[in-house]
């Protein structure tokens, strides 16, 4: 073991240095007395964390200082937030209590720190502790947005310094980040932080692809910079001639967004045209903003031909997250499309720092999209939803969606997410209007409730007092507000029916001479496999459960007890077993280990893939690839069910995977492909589907291979066949 020598004096110097850097970052917002407050918080944090170190061996205090610095510099928050960021871990990790904080720093700071302190959940296999935690955190959003902003700063610093964490922790944290924190940053308008979170998350969940794209980007860097300079020069000149003060430069797109494009369009790196965007940042007064932006637009499109489908005007109607900018895509001198973003210094600050910057410029009485959104979140959260996972799904959907603008009959403008229906619109105006809605007139034409609205539609809602919310409405509404209102109406209805069912059941049990008590009701609920006694009552009222079924229960009373216990101990048993030292890492392909596992069909892992195990309720352990589309959600919500997994080398086994092949159609192409696969490589083909359209050949082939090296070798050989232009592996066969 290496001996650890710590130079305490040098460390103490470094701490002071970092603290001074933090103070410099805070300077623009400092007012009288602020410096003392920050100093007091720093001293308390320094003292209470004094014996703690991070996984890297560094003093713990580096972390709160860094979080405070991000809050000040990258989000633009003020003194209260800096104080809270410095103290964000003391209540959770040290002996300092919330009362101590309140005494020293007042109520406001104490409330924010409380929001920042995680709840420790009890172990319940049927719920997700993480989902509950997320929900608690989101609840604070309604109270004070600063909690979320500091949480984002905390998460960003943890992601930047995750190298010393064990692999399973890295996966869990990275997944949570892509599942919730990045969308939240997006929704709050923090684009720079959102992009960095996505990139860092991908670096851990899909390291190979991340490194591959980073390398490719680096290879072409000089060439790209020459192109940008050449493209930008004439724009700069004319802007200058016309007296517009502006900075013009090229900005690389994030690795994650490039990868997303490759995946969505199934194209190789070389075919992604927008690896960068050109940004024009105009320095002007707030009254002249709009005119100057359009002047710049006119200059750009005089020089380069614009694509008429790609004009986005978020200057006239800002996005709901506060984003303002003018985007266009023009044809560059070498015949490729180039995206140009035009905005002012103020708009740029809002785009980078989001919420806090937005408030700085906010006029006292304007009600921006961001304020409306926070208002909406408050409404959703005030509606108690029993299932935290459901809630998260609804909430998340609202984080990333783009918005459309709809007019009321009186001409008021309502903002809705993309794909919103007439029914969403009704609920958006008022929940009673939604609940009694039977149809709508869109631009004076009668349409059904499920009609999808288009940007600019004018909508009038038609109601009936006889109408009540229906179960199938949930299948087409998209706003979290409509969803939660419908769900709570249905729940209320169910509760009423269940009340009747309860009385009916009481009578029936009496006739069977079964005592009506909590114990027996619980047994019955378990026997009929309902999630709650309310569901039992409901189904009795609906006639799903009758006397005959109740008699069956009487007969098998004995087995009920056993079933109940089995169910509850199932997951904790598996977790215990895995957590024992010898099972710390699940070895796949090693049959000496007597643990049930299966390879998940959603991503078809093969040896060599980066994988993890996930403990399911009924199917033992499922092996997923770490870049599986479902993995982020599983890991984010059920971190405690994750098992590290590793392949053992075993050549005889064959694993199913899919290849997507594109090429120029040619006589005998299919034969050549199958010859390489089955003859040269002796690989078994499970299925092959081929389509040919106007001379373009496209095929999907499911094959059995040994591992990733085997697969890569095969792909290399297939690529040498004349006519084939692209081969990509795909995850699932459905
Ligand atoms: Mn922290």
Automatic annotation (TrEMBL):
Keyword list, A-Z: Kinase, Transferase
Cellular compartments per GO CC: plasma membrane
Keyword Kinase: yes
Cross-referenced InterPro entries: ACT-like_dom_sf, ACT_dom, Beta-grasp_dom_sf, HD/PDEase_dom, HD_domain, NT_sf, RelA/Spo_fam, RelA/SpoT_AH_RIS
Residue intervals of the TGS domain: 402-463
BP term (GO), one: nucleobase-containing small molecule interconversion
Residue ranges of domain HD in the record: 60-159
GO molecular function, one term: kinase activity
Family matches, as SUPFAM superfamilies: ACT-like, HD-domain/PDEase-like, Nucleotidyltransferase, TGS-like
Biological pathway: Purine metabolism
Stored Pfam families: ACT_4, HD_4, RelA_AH_RIS, RelA_SpoT, TGS
SMART domains for the chain: HDc (SM00471), RelA_SpoT (SM00954)
Function, in words: In eubacteria ppGpp (guanosine 3'-diphosphate 5'-diphosphate) is a mediator of the stringent response that coordinates a variety of cellular activities in response to changes in nutritional abundance.
Family: Belongs to the relA/spoT family.
This protein's name: GTP pyrophosphokinase
Organism: Parapedobacter composti
């Amino acid at each position: 073991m290496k001996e650890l020598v710590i130079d305490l004096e040098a460390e103490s110097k470094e701490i002071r240095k970092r603290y001074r850097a933090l103070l410099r970052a805070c300077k623009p917002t400092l007012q009288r007395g602020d410096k003392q407050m920050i100093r007091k918080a720093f001293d308390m944090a320094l003292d209470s964390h004094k014996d703690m170190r991070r996984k890297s061996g560094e003093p713990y205090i580096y972390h709160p200082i860094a979080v405070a610095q991000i809050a000040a510099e990258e989000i633009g928050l003020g003194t209260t937030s800096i104080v809270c960021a410095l103290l964000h871990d003391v209540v959770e990790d040290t002996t300092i209590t919330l009362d101590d904080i309140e005494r020293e720093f007042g109520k406001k700071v104490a409330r924010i720190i409380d929001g920042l302190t995680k709840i420790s959940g009890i172990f319940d296999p049927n719920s997700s502790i993480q989902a509950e935690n997320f929900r608690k955190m989101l609840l604070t959003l309604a109270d004070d947005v600063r909690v979320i902003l500091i949480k984002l700063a905390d998460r960003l610093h943890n992601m930047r310094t995750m190298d010393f964490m064990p692999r399973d922790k890295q996966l869990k944290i990275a997944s949570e980040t892509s599942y919730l924190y990045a969308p939240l940053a997006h929704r709050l308008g923090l684009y720079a932080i959102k992009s960095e979170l996505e990139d860092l998350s991908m670096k851990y969940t899909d390291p190979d692809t991340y490194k591959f794209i980073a390398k490719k980007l680096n290879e072409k860097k000089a060439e790209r910079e020459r192109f940008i300079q050449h493209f930008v020069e004439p724009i700069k000149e004319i802007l200058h001639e016309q007296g517009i003060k502006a900075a013009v430069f090229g900005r690389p797109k994030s690795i994650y967004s490039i990868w997303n494009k490759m995946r969505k369009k199934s194209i190789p790196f070389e075919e992604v045209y927008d690896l960068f965007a050109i940004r024009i940042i105009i320095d002007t007064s707030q009254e002249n903003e709009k005119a100057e932006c359009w002047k710049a637009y006119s200059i750009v499109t005089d020089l380069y031909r614009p694509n008429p489908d790609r004009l986005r005007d978020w200057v006239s109607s800002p996005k709901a997250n506060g984003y303002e900018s003018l985007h266009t895509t023009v044809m560059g001198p070498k015949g490729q499309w180039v995206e140009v973003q035009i905005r002012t210094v103020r708009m740029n600050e809002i785009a980078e720092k989001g919420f806090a910057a937005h408030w700085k410029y906010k006029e006292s009485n304007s009600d921006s999209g961001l304020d409306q959104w926070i208002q909406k979140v408050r409404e959703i959260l005030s509606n108690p939803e029993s299932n935290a996972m459901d809630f998260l799904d609804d909430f998340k959907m609202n984080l990333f969606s783009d918005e459309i603008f709809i007019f009321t009959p009186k001409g008021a403008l309502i903002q809705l997410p993309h794909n919103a229906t007439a029914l969403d619109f009704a609920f958006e105006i008022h929940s009673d209007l939604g609940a009694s809605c039977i149809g709508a007139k869109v631009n004076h034409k009668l349409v059904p409730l499920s009609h999808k609205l288009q940007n600019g539609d004018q909508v009038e809602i038609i109601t009936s007092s006889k109408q009540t919310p229906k179960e199938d409405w949930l299948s087409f509404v998209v706003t979290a507000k409509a969803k939660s209102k419908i769900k709570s109406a249905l729940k209320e209805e169910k509760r009423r029916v269940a009340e009747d069912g309860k009385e009916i059941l009481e009578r029936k049990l009496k006739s069977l001479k079964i005592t009506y008590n909590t114990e027996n009701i619980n047994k019955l609920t378990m026997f009929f496999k309902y999630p709650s006694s309310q569901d039992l009552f409901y189904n009795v009222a609906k006639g799903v459960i009758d006397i005959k079924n109740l008699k069956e229960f009487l007969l098998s009373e004995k087995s009920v007890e056993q079933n109940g216990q089995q169910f509850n101990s199932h997951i904790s048993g598996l977790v215990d077993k895995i957590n024992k030292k010898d099972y710390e890492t699940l070895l796949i392909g090693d049959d000496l280990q007597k643990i049930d596992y299966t390879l998940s069909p959603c991503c078809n892992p093969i040896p060599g893939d980066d994988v993890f195990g996930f403990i399911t309720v009924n199917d033992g352990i499922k092996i997923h690839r770490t870049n599986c589309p479902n993995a982020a959600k599983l890991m984010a919500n059920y971190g405690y069910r994750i098992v590290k997994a590793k392949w053992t080398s075993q050549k005889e086994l064959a694993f199913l995977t899919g290849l997507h092949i594109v090429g120029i159609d040619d006589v005998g192409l299919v034969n050549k492909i199958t010859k390489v696969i089955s003859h040269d490589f002796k690989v078994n083909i499970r299925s092959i589907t081929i389509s040919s359209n106007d001379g373009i050949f496209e095929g999907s082939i499911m094959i059995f291979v040994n591992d990733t090296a085997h697969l890569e070798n095969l792909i290399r050989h297939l690529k040498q066949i004349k006519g084939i232009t692209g081969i990509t592996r795909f995850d699932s066969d459905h």
